[in-house]
Design a protein that fits this description.
The complex is a heterodimer.
Chain A: H1 10-41, H2 47-70, H3 79-98, H4 108-127, H5 132-152, H6 154-157, E1 163-164, H7 181-203, H8 206-216, H9 218-222, H10 228-254, E2 256-257, H11 264-277, H12 284-302, H13 306-320, H14 324-331, H15 333-337, H16 342-374, E3 381-384, E4 387-390, H17 394-425
Antiparallel strand pairs in A: 1-2, 3-4
Helix pairs in contact in A: 1-7, 2-7, 2-10, 2-11, 2-12, 3-4, 3-10, 4-10, 7-10, 8-10, 11-12, 11-13, 16-17
Chain B: E1 3-14, E2 17-28, E3 32-36, H1 43-50, E4 58-63, E5 66-67, H2 73-78, E6 81-83, H3 96-105, H4 122-135, H5 150-163, E7 168-172, H6 180-193, E8 198-202, H7 206-212, E9 215-220, E10 223-228, H8 230-235, H9 237-244
Parallel strand pairs in B: 3-8, 3-9, 6-7, 7-8
Antiparallel strand pairs in B: 1-2, 1-4, 4-5, 9-10
């Protein structure tokens, strides 16, 4: 979130604070309204499960960015806290179903959160002493440790099959039933909003601000009275708590948890989505989680190698827009305010077209390689972009290669022009 | 006795290389003192020992009478000692305002609180604004500290050091790399913000040293060879020899 311009005199500052507060609560109300209306507006049957997945991913990614973006801790094992929180929540849900524990479904995420907090408090106690490489390596070690533990502690992790639960058997709270995806959507939406608000609030507390300071310069933080280790530890525990809530939501939504949910793949995904969204902005991970989940669920319908494309998107983000998607949006805020967005339409459209052509060529080549490698020798044809392609003939290879090269050449021509147009449009003052 | 900082037989060696070779030094409360010496004498190392960045190899360090030998930097800071750095050491991605506010939080008792909003704290904001005013950085308060000019960053460095209200201040070459007029402004600033406090500073600019210091300690090759008033230091043959490169003790 950008910092508003400072006011110099006291009365102005107070008025500014109140306006900010009003605007702040307005934003939250609007967000709640949008989230409440989404399933009413979007009526396709697949949308609700995807949105449920997005909601869980948002909580997961925001909690991850407490470490990466705010605390400067690069973790390769954040799924551990989602997974452990989820397993604990699933067990609690089963006890609730058997009547040995009074726990209605809406409170299950909280149990997951406490589970995540417990293990974050444990693992954080020795991993937050240092940031950087040491922290990253320890997080990787913990992820491996949990993967090994899942094979040893069968009772808790349920072995290969994992732990299943049944959310409908839990006692009701205020008569709320959770049988359909749509009902679960509102549960996830509620917790996603509450945790987002709480995580934002955390970033505005003394320890949240000091997390930024420790990220920037742990040594100096020590010399203004703070223990960098304690600041990281408190941040780490908070992050584990919110990750655990995400795990609890996962348990409530899917009613099953396996060791995979806390594995390295899951930890890698959250890193990708957070980075794609933009780690420098509070709402970056939200955008990243939405885009990532959307691509994941859409692409996987069309191609087996969707993970490869996500990897390419990630690489492109790291190389060309390290501030993430949110960074691009924020960058254009000044242009928008100067009412010069119109000047960018033409160069941006040209770039988008060139990019689409390049992507078409590259995707065609990748898919053909995939068919060539994985399909049996007898079968070499595949529908690609509404054309039946035989990968054992030369023509499609030449065609897609030509398209790819043409796209890249066009990009080399349009990109600098789009960049120059942006620089021109974002220049302060009235440029003609 | 009323020494703010007291060193007693302090030694420091890195591996087998001795850097500080038995320093006894007392800095009286409420004085402004300078630590001078040729390059490589161990001035910055001595600062790092006093502030807890490095552990001493031997000897004791007392802060306002309390033994702080072996304490961590944050523990020493909480006991009222604050320092600046020779190489600018700020929070580059935080705004100027946030840089200073981070430095006042602990002394105002906010600690690791995660249940209160920092923006709601009027006292923290007012204290921060006062410091920014002193630093002449009010107009730059919302700029990320990393994009400030060099002189502004040096001023911020001092601001972070004094914002927490520590009564013992250590400044490590506060005017290094500055022009004449910038140096004069910094001297003004130091005089203003250290009024009524104890100051120990490392400084190479002799005009600054003689302008500010009540007493001067001369460190040569890990030992204090003189600790006296500016006039006597200026007249001392041993000090002149040390600065001319002739060994003081053959």
């Amino acid at each position: 979130m950008s910092t508003p311009a400072g006011a110099t005199t006291r009365p102005l500052a107070v008025a500014g604070a109140r306006a900010r507060w009003l605007r702040g609560s307005g934003v939250w109300l609007l967000a709640a309204l949008v989230v409440a209306l989404l399933p009413v507006v979007i009526r396709t049957p697949v949308a609700v499960p995807v949105m449920n997945q997005m909601g869980i991913a948002i909580v997961f990614a925001l909690s991850y960015n407490m470490l990466l973006g705010q605390g400067g801790m690069l973790s390769f094992g954040h799924a551990v806290y989602v997974g452990l929180g989820g397993f604990i929540a699933a067990h609690a849900l089963n006890h609730a179903g058997q009547g040995t524990l009074w726990l209605p479904l809406p409170l299950v995420p909280l149990v997951g959160g406490l589970g995540g907090l417990l293990f974050a408090a444990l693992f954080g106690s020795f991993s937050t002493g240092r940031s950087g490489t040491v922290f990253a390596m320890i997080s990787l070690g913990i992820a491996e440790l949990m993967a090994a533990s899942s094979l040893i502690f069968n009772e808790f992790f349920g072995g290969e099959e994992g732990i299943t639960a049944n959310r409908t058997k839990a006692p009701l709270l205020l008569g709320l039933e959770f049988t359909t995806d749509r009902q679960v959507y509102y549960l996830i939406a509620f917790w996603a909003l509450v945790t987002t608000a709480l995580m934002y609030a955390f970033s505005r507390t003394p320890v949240g601000r000091m997390a930024n300071a420790v990220r920037d310069n742990p040594e100096r933080a020590e010399f203004v009275g703070y223990s960098a280790r304690w600041v990281r530890y408190v941040t780490f525990c908070a992050s584990g708590f919110f990750a655990g809530i995400g795990g609890g939501l996962f348990a409530a939504n899917y009613e099953i948890l396996t060791a995979e949910n806390m594995g390295l793949n899951a930890s890698g995904s959250v890193l990708l989505m957070t980075y794609i969204g933009g780690i420098g902005y509070f709402l970056g991970p939200v955008l990243g989680a939405i885009v990532f989940t959307f691509l994941q669920s859409m692409l996987s319908d069309y191609t087996d190698v969707w993970l490869l494309y996500l990897g390419i998107v990630f690489l492109a983000t790291v190389l060309f827009v390290p501030m993430g998607l949110t960074g691009i949006v924020v960058m254009h805020g000044a242009v928008w305010r100067a009412r010069r967005l119109g000047r960018l339409v033409l160069p941006y459209t040209a770039t988008a077209l060139a990019l689409a052509v390049a992507a078409l060529g590259v995707v065609g080549l990748v898919e053909m390689i995939h068919v060539l490698v994985s399909a049996p020798v007898s079968r070499g044809t595949r529908w690609l972009f509404w054309v039946l392609v035989n990968v054992r003939t030369v023509t499609p290879w030449v065609a897609f290669a030509a398209i790819a090269i043409a796209g890249v050449l066009a990009l080399r021509w349009t990109m600098p022009r789009a960049g120059a147009a942006f620089a021109e449009a974002s220049r302060p003052g009235d440029a003609r | 006795m009323s020494a703010a900082i007291e060193l007693e037989g302090v030694h420091k060696h890195f591996g087998v290389t001795p850097i500080i070779r038995g320093v006894d030094l007392a800095i009286e409360v409420g004085t402004r003192q300078a630590l001078i010496g040729p390059n490589g004498a161990g001035k910055s190392t001595l600062f790092n020992l006093i502030t807890g960045k490095y552990p001493v190899s031997r000897g004791r360090i007392r802060l306002k009478g309390e033994d702080v030998t072996g304490r961590r930097p944050n523990e020493i800071n909480r006991r009222g000692l604050s320092r600046s750095f020779q190489v600018t050491n700020i929070f580059p991605r935080l705004s100027v305002f946030e840089n200073v506010r981070c430095a006042v939080l602990w002394s105002m008792g906010y600690g690791y609180a995660f249940w209160r909003f920092v923006d709601r704290s009027r006292e923290a904001r007012e204290r921060t604004e006062t410091v920014l005013e002193q630093l002449n950085l009010t107009a730059r308060r919302d700029v990320p500290a990393g994009v400030l000019s060099y002189a502004e960053q040096r001023a911020l460095e001092i601001g972070i050091t004094i914002a927490g209200g520590a009564d013992v201040i250590l400044l490590d070459e506060p005017t290094s790399g500055m022009s004449r007029s910038e140096t004069e402004q910094v001297v003004q600033l130091i005089r203003q913000v250290t009024a009524g406090r104890t100051l120990l500073m490392v400084e190479h600019d002799m005009s600054v040293v003689f302008d500010l210091a009540d007493r001067i300690a001369v460190l040569v090759y890990g030992q204090v060879i003189a600790h006296d008033t500016p006039e006597r230091i200026r007249a001392s043959a041993a000090v002149q020899e040390a600065y001319l490169g002739v060994p003081a003790h053959a």
